[in-house]
Amino acid sequence: MAGAVVVLWIIPGGTINIYSQVGFVTLIGLITKHGILMVDFANTLQDEGVPITQAITQACQLRLRPILMTTMAMVLGAVPLALATGAGSEARRQIGWVIVGGMSVGTLFTLFVIPVVYMLLSRHKPKNVANSGGLRTVP
């Protein structure tokens, strides 16, 4: 959201209106998806017994390409909206700039802030034991 608001503040004629709010909703959904991808993958690795630091590092390495590809597709798809001219272009420009600015800054935050917050808030998960509850069976 911060990147989108800053871009709207910088561009001439940038305002928060219904069109930019649609861009905010799109932005929130995509950036949240990026964070969920990394955290879910790290949690899965932790369930398999991988330490927290190694789990989030592997999650970041393996999810980097899909996150960057999604970001590039959205940003490059929104550039024509941001640079639109002609009738009705005022509305298209707002949504375009929100997506371009917000996805760019939001992806950087996702790649650098989410791993740090994950390491601070995540608890160590012990390895799964075949018998839950610590009960032993006699063969």
What is the gist of this entry?
The protein is mostly helical and 139 residues long. The protein is built from four helices and no strands.
Topology:
Layout: H1 2-10, H2 18-47, H3 52-82, H4 89-121
Helix pairs in contact: 1-4, 2-3, 2-4, 3-4
- Outline type: elongated
Based on CA atoms alone, the radius of gyration comes out at: 21 Å
User: What is the N-to-C order of secondary-structure elements (H for helix, E for strand)?
Assistant: HHHH
CATH T-level topology = Multidrug efflux transporter AcrB transmembrane fold
* Terminal Cα span: 59 Å
Question: Mean pLDDT, as a whole number?
Answer: 85
**Number of H- or I-type helical stretches:** 4
For the biggest sheet, the summary is:
none
* Structural domain tally: 1
User: How many strand units?
Assistant: 0
Class from secondary-structure proportions: mainly alpha
For this structure, what is the CATH class? Mainly Alpha
Helical residues, percent: over 70%
Strand content: under 5%
**Can you identify the CATH superfamily?**
Multidrug efflux transporter AcrB transmembrane domain
